[in-house]
Specification:
The chain has a single domain, classed as Arc Repressor Mutant, subunit A. It has 321 residues and is α+β, with helices and mostly antiparallel strands. The chain is built from 15 helices and twelve strands. The chain has a three-stranded antiparallel sheet with strand order 4-3-12, with no helix packed on it. Strand 1 and strand 2 form a beta hairpin. The structure holds zinc ion (2 copies).
């Protein structure tokens, strides 16, 4: 087992981070739900509104935002009318592996019942399947301990002001599970909070101690205490004493916490592709195959990439009428 190389200058809060940028988009509850419904096939304003039961103006704002972000585009659906439908762009479609990775985590760890709410079926191989996060080079499942990091061409400082002036977002947990029970929504409830996410990211870089979290992400002490307690409450981290006099603690991932890694590196790849102008801030190298790689999401049955148009769902619950 090789520990990730955690060089302090990569860990600075001022560095670009593709995952944070991706999560920032997805953790707006309404944006996420509209995207999810478009992966389910919704295209028209009324379709989104009927399924999500959201106020008209809320939907107008989110569709506009999704269009501005380049995730959807408006297409007139019959000649000579002003009626539009909203279709995913390539950039939007490319979020599909992120959805799958988040869903897999939620299915494994956060489903109430034994069976997850959705069963994926890969129509290309016609098998029921699970999404797997694998190395793009050797196609083996990627474990957090087996990845080495180095600064990529897009590494560099990002103006801090960007982070401070944040628009108001909706991440109400109740909104997130509206209409469909959803493993992705459950996962976002844990990592969709900005500080919780930053803590998780730091931990994947090998940071374990309170003062190091404070120094690296510039978090206030009371917020840090609260988020570590929350993550412990969700079973993501556990506290261990590393010194007895005076008693001091460090925070480590539980197996459940470590399993978030797949989702993070899938989001990182999307952010690298679409939000960093192709200049990845961080290069990942897979220790077992010694190759640079990005995270791919493949079918557990045939190991081919899962594409939205080749994947269907069997719902294991009744749709709300
Ligand atoms: Zn590999
Ligand atoms: Zn398959």
């Amino acid at each position: 087992m090789t520990q990730p190389v955690a060089e302090p200058h990569f860990l600075s809060r001022d560095r670009f981070c593709s995952v944070a940028r991706t999560l920032e988009i997805l953790s707006d509850a309404w944006i996420f739900l509209v995207l999810r419904e478009s992966f389910f096939g919704a295209r028209r304003f009324e379709q989104f509104q009927n399924v999500l039961q959201l106020p008209r103006n809320t939907l107008v704002i989110r569709l506009r935002k999704l269009t501005e972000l380049g995730l959807m585009h408006k297409v007139s659906y019959s000649a000579g009318t002003t009626r539009f439908e909203y279709r995913l762009t390539d950039r939007g479609l490319d979020l599909y592996p992120t959805m799958l990775a988040l869903m897999k985590f939620g299915d494994r760890w956060l489903s109430d019942a034994l069976r997850p709410p959705l069963q994926l079926v890969h129509s290309k191989c016609s098998h029921a399947c699970l999404p797997l996060v694998v190395c793009s080079s050797c196609k083996e499942i990627v474990d957090a301990h087996a990845v080495l990091y180095s600064a990529g061409p897009g590494a560099g400082s990002e103006p801090r002001a960007h982070d401070r002036k944040r628009s108001r977002r909706t991440s109400d947990p109740l909104i997130l599970e509206r209409v469909r029970p959803c493993s992705v929504a459950r996962t976002l409830r844990i990592i969709g909070d900005r500080w919780s996410f930053l803590l998780i990211r730091e931990m994947f870089f090998g940071v374990r101690r309170f003062d190091a979290f404070e120094a690296n992400i510039g978090i206030a002490t009371n917020i840090l205490t609260d988020r570590l307690q929350r993550l412990a409450g969700h079973g993501i981290v556990e506290r261990r004493a590393y010194q007895s006099r005076p008693q001091r603690f460090e925070y480590r991932f539980t197996p459940k916490g470590r399993d978030l890694y797949g989702s993070l590196i899938v989001m990182m790849h999307w952010g690298d592709q679409w939000l960093s102008g192709g200049r990845a801030p961080l290069i990942l190298r897979h220790h077992p195959c010694q190759q640079e790689f990005f995270a791919q999401v493949v079918c557990s049955a045939c190991r081919q990439t899962l594409e939205p148009r080749q994947t269907t769902y069997q719902l294991r619950y009744a749709l709300a009428s």
